[in-house]
Write a structure and sequence with these properties.
The chain is mainly α and 192 residues long. It has helices at 4-23, 40-66, 72-86, 88-97, 102-130, 135-140, 144-160, 164-179, 184-191.
């Protein structure tokens, strides 16, 4: 099966996710700069989520580029990832509109954690199909950064029940860890 349709569909879904998020940004009630202040939590939530969707889009592109072909399992694993990523706009809006309330920050963390799990499932499904000696398997290796991210998300979810600000800081740290694109796959592709 050709992977072009999978890439195009995934790009379309991620574009819609970003569009939905930006549509949640409302125009200020007044005409003065001070009127922007109530929108600050919504804007910060949007920026963080935009960064996350961008990170997933970039790494998803590399992941699919490394795949030689796709099968039904890869299609379902990809849909699983897209499902969790499609929840980012709702959790972002809830978090921003309620000034980073604990429950909203917890749900946001769960969505990020499950997105990370879904990405690993897709990654492993591709490796199973292409083989342990595939380019992707060699590039990923032990995936310390991925495992560390999942651990930090889980820690942040637990902490969010007590202090949502520390959790938000952890979410930001994980985003910063991935802000520079993961070049492991690119390097392996150049080496072959």
């Amino acid at each position: 099966m050709n992977k072009t349709r999978l890439e195009a569909f995934s790009d379309g879904v991620l574009a819609i996710v970003i569009t939905i998020m930006v549509l949640e940004l409302k125009v200020p009630e007044g005409e003065h700069f001070i009127d922007l202040l109530p929108l600050f939590p919504v804007f910060i939530s949007y920026v963080l989520s935009f960064i996350y969707v961008g990170i997933y889009w970039n790494n998803h592109h590399h992941l699919l580029h490394s795949a030689t072909k796709v099968n039904g399992r890869i299609l379902w694993a990809n849909l699983h990832l897209l499902f969790w990523l499609s929840l980012i706009p709702a959790s972002t809006a809830w978090m921003g509109e309620h000034n980073f309330a604990k429950a909203a920050v917890t749900v946001y963390g769960v969505v990020l954690f499950m997105s990370a799990i879904a990405f690993v499932i897709l990654q492993n499904t591709i490796i199973c199909y292409d083989g342990e000696k595939s380019l992707l398997a060699k590039a990923i290796g032990n995936d310390i950064k991925g495992k560390m991210s999942q651990g930090l998300y889980f820690l942040a979810i637990i902490i969010s029940f007590f202090n949502q600000w520390i959790s938000l800081a952890i979410y930001l740290i994980v985003a910063l860890m991935w802000l520079i694109p993961d070049t492991r796959i690119e390097k392996k592709m150049l080496d072959k």
